[in-house]
Structures are given as C-alpha cells and as structure tokens.
Recover the amino acids of this structure.
C-alpha cells in the first residue's frame, strides 16, 4: 500500500516539496525495460544517416504539437536560437535547410496520422538522407513521440533520459 | 454495435518505401527495414524481448494493449498478428474483438477495461488529467505493472507508426501467429 501511495505521488507530479520525478526515478519500478528504452532513445543521437541537429528540430516540433512544455524547454542538442524561435513557422523560413524542411514536414504528418504520409513526402526525405535515413527518421519520430507522451503522463520534471 | 477504431480514416500506401535488407535470419526485426539502421537495431531487439519477458503484465494483457493501439494507428499488419505466447496465455478472439471496437465494450473484465482506457488515454489525450483513471489503475495494478503498461505503449505505438510510415502495408491481412523475435 505504501508503495502504491508513493507511486501515486510520483505520477501526480508535484509533491509538497515541489519535487517532480525524473524518468530514472519512475522506471526504478521496472529497471530492465526502463534501461532498454533509454538505450534505444539515446541511440538516435549518434546516427550516421541523419544529423542530430535535424532530429532535435523534429523532437522539438513534436513537443510543440503535443503541447509538452517540459519537452520544448529541454535541450538534447544545441541549436541556433533563431531556429528554435522560428520553428513553428518553418515552412516560410529561410533559416531551415531543404533537408530540415523535408524532415519537419514528415514529422508533422507522422504526428497527425502516419497513414497520411505521402510518397512524395517520403521521397523528399530519402533525397537528402537516403533510405537508411528515412527509416531512421521514422524510427526516431516514434521514439521521440513516445518519450514526450511518457513525460506528459508521468508529469516528469525533465526530458533527460537518466538511468534507473 | 461498435465501430472499428480506424473506420473512416486514411489508408496507407501499399507501395513499400524502402527495400528491406537481403538477410534471411528468421528474425522479423532484423530482416525488416528496421535492420537497415545499425545504430538502433540492437536496441530494438533488446527492448522487444524485455517488453515481453521482463515485466509483470501477462502476455495476454500485453497483447490486448498492443492490439488496441494497432487499431488506433490503423496498422493492418499489427492488427493481423497474434503473438503465440499471448494465445498460449489464454488470449481469445472474443476478447480481441471486444478491444477492437470503439469505446469500452460492456462485459469486459475490469483489468482489461482499464488497459483499454489507459491505451486510449496514452494515444488520444496524454496531456489531459484523468484522476478517475489514475485512481482505478492504482486499485487494480501494481506500481511495476503501471510502468510496464506505459513502456509497452511507448514501444508498440512508436513501432506501429513506424511500420505504417514505411509503406508496403496491404489493405487487409489474414490473422497469423508469430513468436517474439529473439
């Protein structure tokens, strides 16, 4: 019972002391799976096929679309301030490269309904990053989206994927 | 009579957008397009096994959550598949039918109903506060079971959306049993 109450407070976010749980603290209840998910998440930040900066733009766009302030404020990869500020207006902004725009367009379709992604949108990503890059991007979008959702339902203090 | 969750939504292209590796290892993940990305492949393999083996939820409960998610995403392949360990654990097609309909079907056992409610919350409104769902989950599920439920959704939801995004999904597929790729 005490454990359940403790978990309830973890899930309910702010305790009397204002402490919110981290990813590592929540998954202490199931460390093996928590570690494997964290390892998968981290593997995207050193891909050969897609630059980490481009993936960070996609993660941040997902944070905007899912309404996660914690994910939006978190910095996985350092970006130019201007790109962060202009992210929601990327289609008409010259501060984003054609390759980044192709990935951001796919990100938005993936967030709304993955079945709505068109062949042209997929081809645009492949043009810049090849088939491997396209696969890596749709993998990353699924995992980033999942991490943001976990952050929301667990009301995490940060999106830092720490070890259990 | 309930509606199928994905009724009326768009359908995915049946043209594959990438060529899978030319491998024939017998491992569904290694031989799929996921096998093209060397940095992530070992982690997908390890996480898949951990989801099924290292958590407290039964294979039948995991499968119900996976199938409810598959209906939300509209992943035809994910909907057609049944993991053999879930079938061996007692998963029935009656139960699958119940969780494949929109809304909560009358007669669903309480734990399974809560799994369905959790999946719907995760997919449709994760930023919404649902105190009643949290209270019910705390009454019926242990701490580790709730973490397992969230992490398996994190895995299956991302995986199914990836599968849809890669194209090559047929309009329909017959039910087929598979084993956890190890």
């Amino acid at each position: 019972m005490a454990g359940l109450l403790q978990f309830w407070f973890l899930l309910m976010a702010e305790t009397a002391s204002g402490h919110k749980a981290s990813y590592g603290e929540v998954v202490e209840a199931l460390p093996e799976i928590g570690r494997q998910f964290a390892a998968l998440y981290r593997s995207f930040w050193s891909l050969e096929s897609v630059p980490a900066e481009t993936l960070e733009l996609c993660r941040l766009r997902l944070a905007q679309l899912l309404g996660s302030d914690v994910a939006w404020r978190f910095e996985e990869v350092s970006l130019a301030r201007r790109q962060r500020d202009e992210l929601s207006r990327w289609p008409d902004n010259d501060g984003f490269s054609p390759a980044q725009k192709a990935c951001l367009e796919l990100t938005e379709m993936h967030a709304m309904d993955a079945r709505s992604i068109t062949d042209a949108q997929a081809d645009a990503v492949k043009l810049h990053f090849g088939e491997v890059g396209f696969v890596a991007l749709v993998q990353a979008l699924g995992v980033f989206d999942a991490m943001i959702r976990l952050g929301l339902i667990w009301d995490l203090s940060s999106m830092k994927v720490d070890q259990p | 009579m309930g509606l199928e969750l994905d009724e009326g939504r768009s359908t995915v292209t049946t043209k594959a957008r990438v060529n899978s590796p030319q491998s024939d290892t017998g491992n569904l993940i290694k031989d799929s397009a996921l096998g093209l990305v060397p940095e992530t492949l070992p982690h997908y393999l390890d996480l898949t096994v951990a989801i099924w083996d290292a958590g407290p939820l039964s294979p039948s409960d995991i499968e119900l959550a996976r199938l409810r998610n598959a209906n939300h995403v509209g992943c035809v392949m994910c909907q057609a598949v049944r993991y053999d360990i879930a079938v061996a654990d007692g998963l029935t097609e009656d139960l699958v039918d119940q969780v494949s309909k929109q809304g909560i079907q009358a007669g669903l056992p309480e734990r399974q109903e809560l799994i369905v409610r959790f999946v719907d919350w995760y997919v449709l409104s994760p930023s919404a506060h649902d105190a009643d769902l949290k209270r019910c989950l705390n009454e019926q599920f242990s701490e580790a079971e709730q973490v397992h439920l969230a992490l398996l959704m994190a895995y299956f939801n991302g995986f199914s959306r990836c599968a849809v995004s890669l194209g090559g999904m047929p309009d329909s597929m017959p039910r087929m049993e598979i084993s956890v790729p190890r």
The helical segments of chain A are 2-11, 23-26, 31-43, 52-66, 69-73, 81-85, 98-112, 119-153. The two ends of chain A are 22 Å apart (CA to CA). The first helix of chain A runs from residue 2 to 11. Residues 3 and 138 of chain A are 37 Å apart (CA to CA).
